[in-house]
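quick q for whoever's on today - can somebody do inverse folding on this one?? i tried earlier but teh output was garbage lol. tokens:
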């Protein structure tokens, strides 16, 4: 069950509700950065410290930084937008980066880019975007963000630039581990829920082999972590002609922004970090925090439902988890029927409900799906699950969840079976609505045989020198990235914090006038909100 930090707009549905009523680099001619700045590019033969990794640099990197690498943006068709969304003018290009920054003359990766040019003439520069995941493409996100912010002063003053991180979406090589048929049959993407169909040691070895064969080799699997992407983002900054980076990231995008700040603090102009991942919390702690938030959201959904006499979870919210488990646990042996004949398993039903917990706009769909289970049908929850996995009507899956798996193998702490088992037990204790009720004997970390050790490190983004003011936006009732994580990130970066009263994952694209005003003032005029600033969704 691959729980992850999905982009707020994709699951909280705030932006889609707003639009359609449904849920559904230095300036030209400037030299490359000199050595002596944290994470900066060094002169030939020197070594600089990039976060917690010593990165050898040489004049070979100059060809990636100097303006001869300027992307050739050309008009392209925008990604499909929700009904009623305003049209946006999009341009596409590609950027070359070293697959391994320690070997800049070696194999290269290509990063897919999409730009929506600024609407006005008084342009400040580019605003680089990341939607989260990890594993979500930023190109489509840039187009959607431009549509949501169609009348915002931000789109008047900035080009919006989305990029598909290495291994993701239209970038090459792209991460891929399973066939569509294997995905339809619940190919393993994480250890949760342990106790049903656990990875074996042989399977985790086979996972590496399969992912490497379908993604371009083990060298690719070794270089898709956040620290590699942060370096790509600095090459992108330079290629766009920006002396300093302006950036807005949601969910996992806050990790990417924070790591960039750690590695390239003097290259930062502005960072907006929405729905923050806690830089102080390790994998176990953060996953349990996430489980706690999802259970809280489930209970709030149940309480909302309980006001109706026909609520499929009953009229007593305290018993809603038990009612739900009685409905879904039989699916372990006998999937619910669906109109397409694919059926709905226990795991898929829980994923479908989880997909709706990122924001109240999608709660009615989950309630309708739970009601269907009472008569043995699974169509609505199957549809929610398919959306969560990005399965198209043609039966083809995007590679986002497979990218999530591979990126997390480099970002998350590598667990022994004992630690993975303990984490799963803690998860089910914190989120009992997901519990299958069976004994967890031994869970395995799917990454246990990954070709390299994790490269992120915990904590990260602490004790940064020379970083300008940043802005963290944190929703009090965020079910996936708890509010305290936003508080911790703001404190770690020494930046401003906007607290948003609400019950969804992220607020940047919620269409909220208060949030929009604070974010616009920061990005355009670099004004951070006063201490204690709050908005309400």
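ok took a stab at it. sequence:
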């Amino acid at each position: 069950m691959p729980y992850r930090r999905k982009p707020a707009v994709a699951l909280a549905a705030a932006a889609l509700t707003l639009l359609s009523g449904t849920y559904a680099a230095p300036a030209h001619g400037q030299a490359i950065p000199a050595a002596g700045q944290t994470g900066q590019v060094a002169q030939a033969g020197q070594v600089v410290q990039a976060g917690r990794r010593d990165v050898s640099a040489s004049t070979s990197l100059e060809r990636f930084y100097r303006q001869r690498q300027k992307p050739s943006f050309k008009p392209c068709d925008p990604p499909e937008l929700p009904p009623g969304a305003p049209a946006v003018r999009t341009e596409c290009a590609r950027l070359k980066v070293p697959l391994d920054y320690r070997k800049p003359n070696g194999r290269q990766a290509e990063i897919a880019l999409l730009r929506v040019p600024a609407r006005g003439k008084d342009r400040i520069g580019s605003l680089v975007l990341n939607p989260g995941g990890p594993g979500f493409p930023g190109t489509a996100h840039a187009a959607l963000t431009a549509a949501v912010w169609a009348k915002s002063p931000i789109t008047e003053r900035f080009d919006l630039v989305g990029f598909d991180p290495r291994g993701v979406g239209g970038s090459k090589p792209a991460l891929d581990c399973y066939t569509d048929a294997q995905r339809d049959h619940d190919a393993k993407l994480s250890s949760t829920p342990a106790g049903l169909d656990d990875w074996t040691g042989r399977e985790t070895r086979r996972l590496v082999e399969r992912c490497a064969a379908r993604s371009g080799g083990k060298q690719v699997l070794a270089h898709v972590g956040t620290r590699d992407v942060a370096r790509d983002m600095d090459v992108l900054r330079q290629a766009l002609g920006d002396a300093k980076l302006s950036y807005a990231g949601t969910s996992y995008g806050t990790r990417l922004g924070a790591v960039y700040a750690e590695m390239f603090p003097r290259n930062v102009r502005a960072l907006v970090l929405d729905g923050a991942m806690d830089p102080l919390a390790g994998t176990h702690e953060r996953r349990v925090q996430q489980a706690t938030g999802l259970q809280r959201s489930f209970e709030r959904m149940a309480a909302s439902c309980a006001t109706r006499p026909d609520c499929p979870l009953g009229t007593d919210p305290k018993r809603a988890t038990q009612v739900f488990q009685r409905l879904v646990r039989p699916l372990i042996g006998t999937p619910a029927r669906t109109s397409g004949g694919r059926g709905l398993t226990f795991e898929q039903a829980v994923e479908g409900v989880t997909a709706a917990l990122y924001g109240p706009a999608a709660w009615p769909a989950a309630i309708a799906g739970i009601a269907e289970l009472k008569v043995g049908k699974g169509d609505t929850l199957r549809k929610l699950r398919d959306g969560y996995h990005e399965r198209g009507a043609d039966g083809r899956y995007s590679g986002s969840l497979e990218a999530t798996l591979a990126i997390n193998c480099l970002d998350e702490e590598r667990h022994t079976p004992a630690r993975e088992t303990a984490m799963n037990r803690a998860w089910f204790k914190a989120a009992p609505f997901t519990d299958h009720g069976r004994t967890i004997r031994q869970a395995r970390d799917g990454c246990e045989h990954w070709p390299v050790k994790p490269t992120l490190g915990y904590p990260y983004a602490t004790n940064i020198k020379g970083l300008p003011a940043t802005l963290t936006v944190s929703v009090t009732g965020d079910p996936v990235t708890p509010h305290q994580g936003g508080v911790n990130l703001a404190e770690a970066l020494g930046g401003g914090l906007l607290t948003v009263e609400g019950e969804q994952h992220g607020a940047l694209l919620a269409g909220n006038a208060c949030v929009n005003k604070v974010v616009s003032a920061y990005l355009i005029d670099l004004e951070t909100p006063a201490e204690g600033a709050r908005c309400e969704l």
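fwiw The two ends are 30 Å apart (CA to CA). also Confidence is low (pLDDT under 50) at residues 7-58. so keep that in mind when u check it
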